[in-house]
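User: tokens in, sequence out, please.
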């Protein structure tokens, strides 16, 4: 019993033997499902790795020393017991993937420094205790995917919904006031590809014909009965089933 409370001790030898080569040739330290309760300081000696997987453990805290991993591009902390993140996480300027799904994070304990991760492409905040999303996340201009499912959100700030490169947003199972609002959040990232701001009289005959042809095509598309839309997929955002919030411990250990 005492051993399980302490958790498994990770030595430098164990850590070195847990390094794998990722598909793109990067060095990935995989310490997932190791029963770790405290951040293993020995891995600071391996700070030149490209990817770090500490998912499915029992970590309650990530130390400020995480800033030593300046080459880190990929950080997976999902399914732990994290209640906060260090401000130093904002120093990981090469990070493009951050998964902190299925923890105990609150809005108050999300560091403002997250908005410094200018190269972040994928952010998973699902299955936490968030009642709002900081508007400052609108600074993540490279963000393409964001997971916000299974939280306590009643709205999503426009600064996030209107991120220029965002094309996947999962906000399922949040207590939005209007049931239709959730669909609106999913559809809010549709982009207007073409917009004409010129009067017909200002166009030459060939340009006018081209515009009229485009308008006719759009009108035909609008008159076609739409087929049932496919549900959006989120291949890189780990999403548990709908009852996962009631079974987090079980899901964590899978």
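Assistant: Sequence out:
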């Amino acid at each position: 019993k005492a051993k399980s409370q302490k958790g498994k001790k990770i030595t430098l030898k164990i850590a070195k033997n847990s390094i794998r080569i990722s598909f793109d040739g990067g060095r990935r330290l995989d310490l997932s499902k190791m029963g770790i309760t405290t951040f293993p300081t020995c891995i600071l000696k391996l700070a030149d790795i490209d990817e770090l997987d500490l998912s499915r453990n029992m970590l309650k805290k990530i130390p400020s020393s995480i800033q030593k991993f300046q080459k880190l591009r990929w950080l997976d902390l999902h399914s732990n017991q994290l209640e906060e993140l260090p401000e130093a996480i904002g120093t990981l300027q090469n990070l493009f993937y951050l998964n902190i799904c299925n923890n105990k994070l609150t809005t108050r304990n999300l560091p403002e420094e997250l908005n410094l991760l200018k190269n972040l492409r994928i952010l998973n905040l699902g299955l936490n205790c968030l009642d709002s999303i900081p508007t400052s996340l609108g600074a993540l201009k490279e963000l393409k995917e964001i997971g916000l499912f299974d939280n306590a959100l009643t709205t999503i700030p426009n600064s996030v919904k209107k991120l220029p490169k965002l094309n996947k947003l999962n906000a399922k199972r949040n207590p939005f006031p209007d049931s239709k609002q959730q669909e609106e959040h999913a559809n809010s990232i549709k982009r207007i590809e073409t917009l004409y701001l010129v009067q017909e009289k200002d166009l030459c005959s060939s340009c006018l014909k081209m515009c009229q042809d485009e308008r006719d095509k759009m009108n035909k598309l609008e008159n076609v009965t739409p087929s049932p839309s496919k549900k959006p997929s989120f291949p890189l955002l780990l999403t548990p089933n709908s009852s996962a919030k009631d079974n987090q411990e079980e899901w964590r250990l899978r």
